[in-house]
């Protein structure tokens, strides 16, 4: 799952376009993208779309907000692909969500407290993987959006995911819409840190994100040569491209090929 595309829950005319945009996952958003006066209508639009067969993740409103309980009631009746919880900072909302739905939970780490508690959040019931709410995080701690300022947070989210035995996490959005080179650069940086996907706020971002998180032809050729050389060596030491192949290298090659299956 490389690309996760948000679409506002109160804009049903955009649902079909989002689902056809090539994203691996579409997120119908009931939180930030929906004004308070449109929340109730958005829930009905979402209900109709999912009952009509839309296979989507649903981002609900934050724990403690007046809309959280209503979103929870909606979830009890809907077969969603997953639930994204904003501003995840404690275990309590995951416990309530897990009691309301069997859908996998994706907590968004968006604050200093969320990052401080990230391992507890990752170990909460029903959690499948974490996501980084990088824009809200910047606002909360007062930093800029540079690689240096957010490196610690990104690395902590990746490490906590691994320690908790979760699937690898999803990185935050790019705010640029028309600079495919920059979106690709940011996505490749995320991939090098251990993220396997990225949140998107516009269909134009999807293609660049998908490509950046997919193994290149060069990587796949290398992986196939590593596996072939290992199989032919019958357990003896072997090298590929002048580098020794040991078990971690073999596992890396196998993981790259697994991404194409």
Mean pLDDT, to the nearest integer, reads 91
CATH class of the largest domain: Alpha Beta
Instruction: Please name the CATH topology of the largest domain.
Output: TIM Barrel
Principal-axis shape equals globular
Order of helices and strands: EHEHEHEHEHHEHHEHEHHEEH
Structural account:
- GO terms for molecular function: lyase activity; magnesium ion binding.
- By secondary structure, the chain is of the alpha/beta class.
- The chain has two domains: 210 residues, Alpha-Beta Barrel (TIM Barrel); 42 residues, no CATH class.
- The chain is 46% helix and 14% strand.
- It has twelve helices and ten strands.
- It has an eight-stranded parallel sheet.
- The longest helix is centred in the middle third of the chain and has 17 residues.
- The model has no long low-confidence stretch (mean pLDDT 91).
């Amino acid at each position: 799952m490389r690309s996760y595309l948000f679409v506002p829950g109160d804009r049903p005319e955009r649902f079909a376009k989002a689902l056809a945009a090539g994203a691996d996952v579409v997120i119908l958003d009931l939180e930030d993208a929906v004004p308070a006066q449109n929340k109730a209508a958005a829930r009905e639009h979402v209900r109709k779309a999912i009952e009509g067969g839309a296979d989507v993740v649903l981002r609900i409103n934050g724990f403690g907000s007046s809309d959280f309980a209503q979103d929870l009631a909606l979830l009890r009746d809907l077969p969603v692909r997953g639930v994204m919880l904003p501003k995840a900072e404690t275990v309590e909302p995951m416990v309530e969500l897990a009691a309301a739905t069997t859908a996998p939970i994706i907590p968004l780490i968006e604050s200093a407290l969320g990052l401080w508690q990230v391992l507890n959040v990752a170990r909460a019931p029903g959690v499948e993987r974490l996501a980084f709410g990088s824009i809200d995080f910047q606002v909360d701690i007062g930093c800029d959006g540079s690689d240096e300022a957010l490196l610690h947070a990104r690395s902590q989210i990746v490490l906590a995911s691994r320690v908790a035995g979760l699937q690898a996490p999803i990185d935050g959005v790019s705010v640029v819409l028309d600079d495919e080179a920059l979106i690709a650069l940011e996505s490749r940086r995320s991939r090098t840190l251990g993220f396997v996907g990225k949140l998107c706020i516009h269909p134009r971002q999807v293609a660049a994100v998908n490509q950046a998180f997919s193994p290149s032809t060069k990587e796949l050729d290398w992986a196939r040569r590593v596996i072939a050389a290992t199989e032919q060596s019958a357990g003896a030491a072997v090298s590929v491209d002048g580098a020794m192949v040991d078990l971690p290298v073999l596992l890396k090659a196998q993981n790259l090929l697994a991404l194409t299956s």
